[in-house]
Design a protein that fits this description.
heterotrimer, A: 296 residues, MetI-like fold, 2 domains, B: 295 residues, MetI-like (chain B), Multiple sugar transport system permease protein (chain B), MetI-like_sf (chain B)
C-alpha cells in the first residue's frame, strides 16, 4: 500500500470526494421533503422551482401531531382526518420491537442449524426456506388474513406481529452466511468442554456475531416499522393502529386527488425520526463490536 | 458445501430443535399460502366465488399471452439496470467506507433512504422529476438542458424507476456488503500489504473471494427483490405509457385484484416462482455461496 | 402472547383450506347492533360522521361506525375483506367496481326494502338511479351524489389574452378544425418568447403556457375528464345501449377523428405531450402553477382547482359539438349493502338515512361534492357560492339534457386493460387512430 508515496493520499481525497457526492445525492431528496413539509399546500405548485419552503408554515407538522383543528387542517389544503400521533407511535414501537426480537432470535437459531449443524437434507431444506422470498406478498396476504380471522386475532397486536415474528427468509439467509464464516475450532473447543448446542449457540456463536446481529436487528426493525399493507388489513382498530397506517390519511384520498404534500412529507419525516434515533444508538454498537472479526 | 466429516455425529435432533420456531412460521405464513396459490393456479377463481378446477388452462393461456411476455421483458430490463447499477455502486461504497472511515455517521446517512417507505420514495421522486414543475428539471434548465419527462417517456420510464430504487437500496446493500468486509480478518490484508500488492489486486485477489458468501447472498436477495418491483410502478406510471412499465408484479396485481382473475394470476406467479428459483440456484452455484475461502 | 401462541399452534394443524373454503362466506359485518360504514374521501368524513350522529339519535338501538381509507387502500382492503367475509355492512360504491361486485353476489339487492318502505327513486336527475341497477333490473345502491365535467379557466390569462369570460359559454368544437374552442386554446398558448399559439413565429418546442392542460390519469376507454366531452358531442356513444351495452363503438369514425384531433393539439404544442402530463405532478397542480390556461376536469375537483392561492379561477361549460349540443359524462356514487351483513335491517335503515334529504343536506353543507337530491344540491350550490364558486357550468348540462351516463357494462376492468394502452399508443403517436378499430374488436370479443 505504500508503494507510491503520493498515491494513497490522492486516492483518499478522491475516495472522500466520491463518497461526499454519493451522500449528497442521498440527502437531497430529504432536504426536498423537509422543504415541502414546511410549505403551504396552496402555494406549493406556483413555487415548484424554489429551493426554499413555499409560504413557510409549521402547519403540516401541527396537522400530523394532531394539534390542528379540523377547520385549520382543511383550510391548509389538508384532509379532514385527525390523528392521535403518540398513540400510533407507541403501537409502532411495540410491534416493531416484538417483530425484531422474535425474528432475530428465531432466524438466528435456524441459521445456526443451517450453517453449523450437520444433518441430511440440510441444504435442500435451506433452499426451500429461501424460496419463501419468491412468493409474491399479494399471494400470502390473503390466506394469512383469513388465518388471522379464523384465529380471531383481527385488530390485535398479535395479528400485526405474527407473520414476521418467527422468521423472514432474509433474516435466515443473512445470519446463515455470517455463521458460515465462523471458524470451527472455537466450537469444537467448546464441545470438548462438554457444552451442548444451546450453550454453544447462546454463549459462543451469538456473542461472536454481535455485528451482523446488530445489522440484522436494525434492518428488521426498519422493515417492520415501514410495514404498511399488512397492518392496514389486520390492525385498523384504533387501539392497535400503527403509525404507517394512521399516516395513510395524508396520501391521496380520492381517485384523482393529489396527496396532502406538506402533510405527507411532515408525516414521513416525523415517522422516520425514531428509527434514526435507533440507528444512532445501534451505529455505535456496530462500531464497538468490529473487533469480533479478529477471532479467527 | 462443507464436507461431511465422519468423526462428527449427525445433529438431526438439535437441528430440529433450532429450526422449530422458524419452521413453524415458514409453514404457516409462507409454505401454506404457496401451496394454496399453486392449487388455485389450476382453477378459474375470481376471489369472490368458489374456484373451479380447469386443469392447466391458465398455463396454456399464459404461453399465448403477449402482454405477459412483454411484462417479463420489461421486468428483466428493470432488473438488469437496477441490479447492475446498484451492486457496483454498493460494492464501491462499501469498500470506500471500509478503507476510509469506520464512522457510523456516513453509514447512517447512506442508509437514510431505506428508512422511507417505498411508496413515499416513489411519490417524492415522481414529484421532483416532473417535466414542468419538478425541481430536477428546474436545475437542469438553469444549466441550459431541456426538460426531460423522466417517468413519462416510454424510453426513460423503466431506467428512471430502476434508478429511483437504486437510490433507496444503495446504502442498504452497501451496509450488507460492509458487514461482510468487517468479517474479513485484518491479517489477510496485512499479508497482502507486505507483498506490496496494489489496491486493485488486493480487491480482486483478497477482498472479492473472501466476500463471496456475503456477495452471493446480496445478489440472490436483491435480484429476487428486484423482480418483485411493484410499489414504484403502482404509485407513478401505473404500467404506462402504453405498456412500457407494466412489470410482471403490476400485471399480476391487475389480473388478480382489478380483473378478479386470481387463478390466472396465481399461474403467472408460479411461472415467476420457477424462474426465480432457477435463477437463485444458478447464482448460488456460480458463487459457491455455501463455502467461504476462510474455511 | 403466550395464550395466543398456544391457540395458534392448536389451530395450525387444523387450518382449513382457508382461502378456498371461505370465499364469499357470509357472517361478516360487525355485530348486530353496530353498522360499519366505509368511505374513501377524508374531506367528506365530517359530513358523514354528522349523519351518523343524527341517525343514532333517531335509532338509539343502532350504532354506526364510520371508517375511512384513502382511494387505493380502500379497494384493496375491501376486496380482502369481501373474500374473508369481514367486509363492512355498508360501503360507498363506485361504478368501476359495482358491476363486478354485483355479478359476484357481494351486494344486497335493495328492491324489497325500497318497495316496502316506499322510498322514491324518481327524485334524482335523469338516469342517476339507473346506474345502480343491473341487467336483471335489481337495484344495488341509492345515489348519494353526482358529478359532471366542465372547463376550468385561469381568469388572469384570459384577461391577458383579451378574451371575455362570457365568450366561454358559447364555444363550439368540431373534430376537423376544432372550431372556436381550438382557436381559443391556440390563443391562450404562449411560448417562452411570449408569442401566442396563433401568432407567426410561435415556437411549439418551447411552450411556457399550454392553452389546455392534459389530465395525467390514464383515460382508458372512458376518457371522462380527458376526451369524452368532445367525442360524445359528435353524437358518438360508447356502446349500443347504456347501461349494460354489449357492443362498443371505438371503431366509429367520429370517435377516431376526435382522437386524431386531440393528438393534433399535442403536435401543435397547444396541449402538453402525454409524456409531460404523466411525468410527475397532476394536471390541477400544473394549472395551479400557471402552466395551463384551461383544464377540463370533474366537479369533484372543484376544491382542488379553487384551492390555489393567487390563482383566480372560473368555470365554463364544455364546448358545443357537431351534434349541436355540449356533452359531459354524468356519473355518481352510491351506498351499497354487503350481502354478508348480519344486520340487514340496520344496514338498510342506514342506507335509507344516507339517501334521505336530511343527510344529503348535511353533506351539501360541506360544499365538497354535489348531493344527488335536488333539494340538497340547492344547499350545496349556496355553500359553494359562499366560497366564491359558481357551479352552474356543472349543473347546466343536467338541466339541458346534455349529459351522458358513464358507460356501465360487464368486463369493465378488462376493457380498461385493452383501451388504456391502445389510447396511450395513439396519443404518443406510436399508433394511428385507426388502430383503435382493432382494440375495439378485442373489447367486443369479451362479450361473445
Amino acid at each position: 500500500m505504500t508503494s507510491t508515496p503520493i498515491g494513497p493520499r490522492w486516492r483518499k481525497a478522491l475516495g472522500w470526494t466520491v463518497l461526499a457526492v454519493l451522500v449528497l445525492i442521498t440527502l437531497f431528496p430529504f432536504y426536498w421533503m423537509l422543504r415541502v413539509s414546511l410549505s403551504d399546500n396552496r402555494v406549493l405548485a406556483a413555487n415548484a422551482d424554489s429551493l426554499l419552503p413555499a409560504g413557510f408554515t409549521l402547519g403540516a407538522f401541527e396537522r400530523v401531531l394532531g394539534l390542528a383543528s379540523l377547520e385549520e387542517a382543511r383550510a391548509q389544503g389538508g384532509s379532514g382526518a385527525s390523528i392521535d400521533f403518540w398513540r400510533y407511535l407507541l403501537n409502532s414501537v411495540l410491534t416493531a420491537t416484538l417483530i425484531t426480537a422474535g425474528q432475530v432470535l428465531f432466524s438466528s437459531m435456524a441459521a445456526y442449524a443451517f450453517a453449523r449443524l450437520r444433518w441430511p437434507g440440510r441444504d435442500a431444506v435451506f433452499f426451500v426456506f429461501l424460496t419463501a422470498l419468491m412468493i409474491p406478498p399479494i399471494f400470502t396476504a390473503l390466506p394469512n388474513f383469513v388465518l388471522m380471522r379464523d384465529l380471531e386475532l383481527l385488530n390485535t397486536y398479535a395479528a400485526i406481529v405474527l407473520p414476521f415474528f418467527f422468521m423472514t427468509p432474509f433474516a435466515v439467509f443473512f445470519m446463515r452466511q455470517f455463521l458460515l464464516g465462523i471458524s470451527r475450532e472455537v466450537e469444537e473447543a467448546a464441545r470438548i468442554d462438554g457444552a451442548g448446542h444451546p450453550r454453544i449457540f447462546f454463549r459462543i456463536v451469538l456473542p461472536m456475531s454481535r455485528a451482523p446481529l446488530a445489522t440484522l436487528a436494525l434492518l428488521a426493525y426498519i422493515t417492520a416499522w415501514n410495514e404498511y399493507f399488512w397492518p392496514l388489513l389486520v390492525g385498523q382498530g384504533e387501539g392497535v393502529r400503527v403509525l404507517t397506517v394512521a399516516l395513510g390519511v395524508f396520501r391521496s384520498q380520492t381517485p384523482q386527488g393529489s396527496p396532502d404534500w406538506a402533510g405527507l412529507m411532515a408525516a414521513t419525516l416525523l415517522a422516520a425520526l425514531p428509527v434514526i434515533a435507533l440507528f444512532v444508538a445501534f451505529g455505535r454498537r456496530i462500531v464497538d463490536s468490529i473487533q469480533f472479526s479478529g477471532i479467527k | 458445501m462443507t464436507t461431511h466429516r465422519t468423526r462428527h455425529r449427525s445433529d438431526v435432533w438439535p437441528a430440529l430443535l433450532f429450526l422449530l420456531p422458524a419452521g413453524f412460521g415458514f409453514v404457516l405464513f409462507y409454505a401454506w399460502p404457496a401451496v394454496q396459490t399453486f392449487y388455485l393456479s389450476f382453477t378459474d377463481y375470481s376471489l369472490l366465488a368458489a374456484p373451479n378446477w380447469i386443469g392447466a388452462q391458465n398455463y396454456r393461456d399464459a404461453l399465448g399471452d403477449a402482454r405477459f411476455g412483454n411484462a417479463l421483458l420489461v421486468t428483466v430490463e428493470y432488473v438488469v439496470i437496477n441490479i447492475g447499477v446498484q451492486t457496483v455502486a454498493a460494492l464501491f461504497i462499501a469498500v470506500l467506507m471500509h478503507r476510509l472511515t469506520k464512522s457510523s455517521l456516513v453509514r447512517g446517512l447512506l442508509l437514510l433512504p431505506y428508512l422511507i417507505a417505498n411508496v413515499v420514495v416513489a411519490l417524492v421522486w415522481y414529484n421532483m422529476l416532473d417535466a414542468q414543475l419538478g425541481i430536477v428539471n428546474a436545475v437542469l434548465s438553469w444549466v441550459g438542458i431541456d426538460p426531460v419527462a423522466f417517468f413519462g417517456e416510454t424510453s426513460t420510464a423503466i431506467p428512471t424507476i430502476a434508478l429511483v430504487n437504486v437510490w433507496r437500496h444503495m446504502g442498504y446493500t452497501a451496509l450488507l456488503i460492509f458487514a461482510g468486509l468487517q468479517a474479513i480478518p485484518k491479517s489477510v490484508y496485512e499479508a497482502a500489504a507486505i507483498d506490496g500488492a496494489s489496491e486493485w489486486r488486493i480487491f480482486r485477489g483478497v477482498t472479492l473471494p473472501l466476500l463471496r458468501p456475503v456477495l452471493a447472498m446480496v445478489l440472490v436477495l436483491t435480484v429476487i427483490g428486484s423482480f418483485q418491483i411493484f410499489d414504484t410502478v403502482a404509485v407513478t406510471t401505473k404500467g404506462g405509457p402504453v405498456d412500457a412499465t407494466r412489470v410482471i408484479y403490476f400485471y399480476l396485481y391487475e389480473k388478480a385484484f382489478q380483473q378478479f382473475d386470481f387463478g390466472y394470476a396465481a399461474a403467472l406467479s408460479v411461472v415467476l416462482f420457477l424462474i426465480l428459483a432457477g435463477l437463485a440456484v444458478a447464482q448460488l452455484r456460480l458463487l459457491r455461496a455455501g463455502s467461504s475461502d476462510l474455511d | 402472547m403466550h395464550n395466543k401462541l398456544s391457540k395458534l399452534a392448536a389451530l395450525a394443524v387444523a387450518v382449513p383450506l382457508a382461502l378456498v373454503g371461505c370465499a364469499g362466506a357470509p357472517g361478516g359485518g360487525s355485530g348486530s347492533d353496530e353498522i360499519t360504514y366505509w368511505l374513501w374521501d377524508a374531506n367528506q368524513l365530517p359530513a358523514y360522521q354528522a349523519c351518523a350522529t343524527d341517525f343514532e339519535k333517531a335509532n338509539p338501538d343502532t350504532k354506526v361506525k364510520v371508517e375511512q381509507f384513502g382511494w387505493a387502500d380502500y379497494w384493496n382492503k375491501l376486496t380482502t375483506d369481501l373474500v374473508a367475509g369481514t367486509a363492512p355492512d355498508v360501503f360507498t360504491n363506485h361504478l368501476n367496481y359495482f358491476a363486478t361486485y354485483a355479478a359476484k353476489n357481494q351486494l344486497l339487492p335493495l328492491d324489497e326494502f325500497v318497495t316496502r318502505d316506499g322510498v322514491p327513486t324518481d327524485v334524482y336527475p335523469q338516469g342517476l338511479a339507473d346506474l345502480w341497477t343491473t341487467q336483471d333490473g335489481k337495484r344495488y345502491g341509492l345515489p348519494k351524489d353526482f358529478d359532471t365535467v366542465a372547463l376550468f379557466y385561469n381568469k388572469e390569462m384570459l384577461a391577458d389574452a383579451g378574451v371575455a369570460e362570457a365568450d366561454l359559454a358559447n364555444l363550439t368544437w368540431n373534430p376537423q378544425d376544432g372550431g372556436t374552442y381550438e382557436k381559443l386554446i391556440a390563443h391562450l398558448t404562449v411560448d417562452a418568447n411570449g408569442k401566442r399559439g396563433d401568432e407567426p413565429g410561435f415556437d411549439k418546442t418551447k411552450v411556457a403556457v399550454h392553452g389546455l392542460g392534459l389530465d395525467e390519469n390514464n383515460g382508458a376507454g372512458v376518457g371522462q375528464q380527458m376526451w369524452s366531452m368532445y367525442a360524445l358531442s359528435t353524437g358518438w356513444t360508447y356502446t349500443d345501449e347504456n347501461p349494460w351495452g354489449s357492443h362498443f363503438n371505438y371503431d366509429d369514425p367520429r370517435f377516431q377523428r376526435t382522437m386524431a384531433w386531440f393528438r393534433g393539439l399535442m403536435d401543435k404544442g397547444y396541449l402538453p405531450s402525454l409524456a409531460t402530463a404523466r411525468s410527475g405532478t397532476s394536471v390541477n397542480d400544473g394549472f395551479g402553477a400557471g402552466k395551463y390556461a384551461l383544464s377540463t376536469n370533474g366537479s369533484w375537483m372543484i376544491n382542488s382547482y379553487f384551492g390555489y392561492d393567487g390563482v383566480e379561477v372560473g368555470v365554463a361549460p364544455t364546448p358545443t359539438g357537431p351534434s349541436g349540443k355540449r356533452a359531459t359524462i354524468f356519473n355518481g356514487l352510491a351506498d351499497s349493502i354487503y350481502t354478508g351483513t348480519d344486520n340487514r335491517e340496520g344496514a338498510w335503515k342506514w342506507v335509507k338515512h344516507l339517501a334521505s334529504a336530511e343527510c344529503q343536506k348535511t353533506v351539501g353543507e360541506q360544499a365538497v361534492v354535489f348531493p344527488a337530491l335536488p333539494e340538497a344540491l340547492a344547499v350545496a350550490k349556496e355553500k359553494f357560492a359562499a366560497k366564491g364558486v359558481d357551479i352552474t357550468a356543472f349543473t347546466q348540462p343536467v338541466d339541458e339534457g346534455a349529459t351522458h351516463l358513464y358507460p356501465i357494462t360487464d368486463h369493465a376492468p378488462e376493457i380498461a386493460a385493452v383501451m388504456g394502452p391502445a389510447i396511450d399508443a395513439v396519443l404518443t403517436s406510436q399508433a394511428d387512430p385507426a388502430s383503435l378499430t382493432q382494440a375495439n374488436e378485442q373489447v367486443n370479443a369479451l362479450f361473445r
